[in-house]
Amino acid sequence: MKSVRVTVSCMELRLATCRSAQLKAWTELSGPQLHALITRLWRRRPASGCGRLWSLTFGNRVLLVVLGYRTNLTMEQLAGLFATTDSTVHRVTADLAPHLAALLGPPPTDRRELWLVDSTLIPVHDQQKTQKSKNYRRSVNVQIPCRARDRRLVAVGDAWPGNRNDVVVFRETVGKTLPDHSRLSGDGGYQGIERIRSPRRGPDRKIIKDRAYPRFRKRRAVAEHTLTRLKDHQVLRQCRRKREEINHAVAGIAALHNLKLELNG
C-alpha cells in the first residue's frame, strides 16, 4: 500500500497539463465547460488577497472538487493525486462546495413548462441524517424536480431521513421553496398533494391504467433517466461526507448537470 501511495503522489495532477479527453473521462466535463465553470465560480468567489495563500491555483481547486464528486475518492487519495495535504483538500472542499451549490440558482418562472418531480435515496455514512429505508441501507431522501423538455434541474431539496415518504419530504423541502406551478407531475408516490398531477387511483387504491396512464409512464422515465445521470457522480452512491455537505454535493452536481446542458445546447 505504501508504494501505491508514493506512485499516486508523484503524479501531481494539474489542470494545465490535462488534455480535454482526460478531463472528459475524469469529470464528464469538456475543456470549455470546465473553464466556464471556473469563470462562474471566480465571479462568486474571487480571491480576497488576504490570509494564507493556497498551495493550489483556483482552477486546480475547482478541478479537485469536481473530481471528488465524480470519483468519490477519499480526502487522502485526492491529496495524493494533487500532491498536497489532506487538510488542504478539506479546506478546498469546504471553501468551494457551497459556492458550487449556489450556481444552481433560483427556479425558473415560466409557467408554461412541464416540471417532473421524483425522489432518490442516497446512502450516507452520517447517521445523524439517515434512517434505514427500502434499499436496506441508511440513506437520505432527496426531492429533485426537473424540466421535462430538456431535463434541466429546477431545484433540489434538502436531505431528509430515508424512511420518510415522498409526500412528507416534498411538502417540507421543495414544496416550500418552489413557486406555484400549475404543470407539476409526479408518480403514484405523490398521491395526496394537490399541486402535483399523479396517476388516478380507483376505490381499491390501485392505479387506473386509462388513456392518460402511458403519458405518466413516459414522464416518469424522463425523471428516472435524469436521476441516473446525476448518479454517474459516485458521491451520490456512497456519500462519506457529514452534516450539510450532502446538500452541497447534490446541489453542486445539479449545477454541473445544468451547465453541461446549457453549453451543449
UniProtKB/TrEMBL annotation:
One of its GO terms (molecular function) is DNA binding. GO terms for biological process: DNA transposition. It comes from the Bacteria. Residues 115-259 form the Transposase IS4-like domain. This is Transposase IS4 family protein. It comes from Streptomyces violaceusniger (strain Tu 4113).
